Amino acid sequence: MAAALREPIYVVDGARTPFLKARNAPGAFTASDLAVAAGRALLARLPVKPDQFDEVILGCANPSADEVNIGRYVAMRLGCGDRVTGWTVMRNCASGMQSIDSAINNMLAGRSELVLAGGVDALSHAPLLYSPKMVLWFAALASAKSVGQRVGVFAKLSPKEMLSPIIALMRGLTDPKVGLLMGQTAENLAHRFGITRVEMDAFAAESHKRVLAAQAAGHYKDEVTPLIDKKGNVYANDDGVREDSTAEKLAKLKPFFDKKYGNVTAGNSSQITDGGVFVALATKAAVEKHNLPVLGKIVDTQWAGCDAAQMGLGPVYASTPILKRNGLTLNDLDTIEINEAFAAQVLACKRAWENETFCKEELGLDSAMGSIDSAKLNVDGGAVALGHPVGASGARIVLHALNTLKRTGGKRALATICIGGGQGGAMLLEAV
User: Fold this and answer.
1) In percent, how much of the chain has pLDDT > 90?
2) Catalytic choice (60, 306, 359, 418)
3) Does residue 120 lie within any of the structural domains?
4) Engineered SS bond to 278: which of 38, 69, 134, 306, CB 3.0-4.6 Å?
5) Does residue 85 form part of some domain?
6) 128 burial level (CB within 10 Å; 0-12, 13-18, 19+)
7) For residue 138, what are the domain limits?
8) Spatial separation of the C-alpha atoms in residues 250 and 2, rounded to whole Å
9) Using CA atoms, how far apart are residues 155 and 432, in angstroms rounded to an integer?
10) Which of 60, 80, 93, 359 is catalytic?
């Protein structure tokens, strides 16, 4: 088990783009565009120049073919120069959180003092792929030497079978070990913990309601930087949230992942979205050296593995060791951010902590962990309404948890996320 950090790492500030819902076509911005926009907004507020950072670390689950090491590319676009290293990390849904943890490890090791870390994904740009049979057909065509050989290759072309594209995003959201889409794992949790369709839709509607209230109250104002595309269109706010997403309307949607028996729908699941996030991290020495403001600090982190078919419980497995290690209960936290991959998944995490048998057998506790106060959980809504740009969400919940502490005067926050493949990540945060 990993130990608590031997010294805190400070989050100086952070910024993100609006989260823009994918609408069946590539969006206006590439992943690097989004990351650069978030990074520029953040750098403009800091009393340090881009080339004063030691490194840039960016989480991304779906970089494009010409942005493979997107971390380095974004560092260059931000003006960090040749000296500042840039690299990319990928831990599925927690890639943005992994970038922060990777920065922490380097900072505690003495290799860096000031780091830009974040996450990004432009899921609307996920490619369509050829089938393996079509790839082999192209290989045969390339190998054909004579006209007769080429005619023979074309004679074997079966357009209906071979030209049907494979949706890369759907393939990426399917676990290769258990063969289940992420939404099907949410169905597993709903069945295990007796979560009803009514409960899922009510949770989803509340997520939209809270995001709308937060936007109206200006809770995202200092966090979100507007985007302007090449045509001059302005994207000022997260655009997946809907005023008409009531429980009654959501109840009319058909199940998507298990059409016959299921209850998980597009409406009570996170949205496919484009977005980018950056935070500036600093050691105590760097804060003093550069006279930096401080938003909060990271005092502990934890990763955990679990059954891939139950991947939505990852936050429970990752968060519990942190709470035990720091002598805390769920009630000791002032705000909790659990990434809303699915309404059923967040509700299952709550039920798991409340279940004495689960806590004893799965977590090694003497009794149930306890209940989460709904008033402290995802207070400004979550990914069901905002969207889930896979590489960015882990960094977003860390940033927003700290902003919530600042706004409310709270002391401690937990940011935690489930990870495709059967993992969970968690960070314990404190206000300064």
Assistant:
1) 90
2) 418
3) no
4) 38
5) no
6) exposed
7) 131-164
8) 41
9) 70
10) 93
Active-site residue flag, 418: yes
User: Would you state the structure tokens that stand for residue 114, as one six-digit string?
Assistant: 């000031």
* Closest C-alpha among 8, 65, 5, 67 to residue 35: 67
Element (H, E) at 161: helix 159-162
The neighbour count for residue 197, using CB atoms within 10 Å, is 19
pTM: 0.95
Q: pLDDT digits over 333-377, tens only?
A: 999 999 999 999 999 999 999 999 999 999 999 999 999 999 999
Strands 114-122, 128-129: parallel, antiparallel or unpaired by DSSP? Answer: unpaired
Task: Specify the pLDDT at position 393.
Answer: 98
Residues 325 and 365 in one domain: yes
Q: For residue range 140-192, list pLDDT tens digits in order.
A: 999 999 999 999 999 999 998 898 888 888 888 888 989 999 999 999 999 99
Number of domains in the chain: 2
Are 309 and 377 contained in the same domain?
yes
With residue 119 as reference, give the H or E element that holds it.
strand 114-122
- 196-227: pLDDT as tens digits: 999 999 999 999 999 999 999 999 998 999 99
User: Is 260 inside a domain boundary?
Assistant: no
Residue 343, both tokens = 């309404």
Let me know if 93 is a catalytic residue.
yes
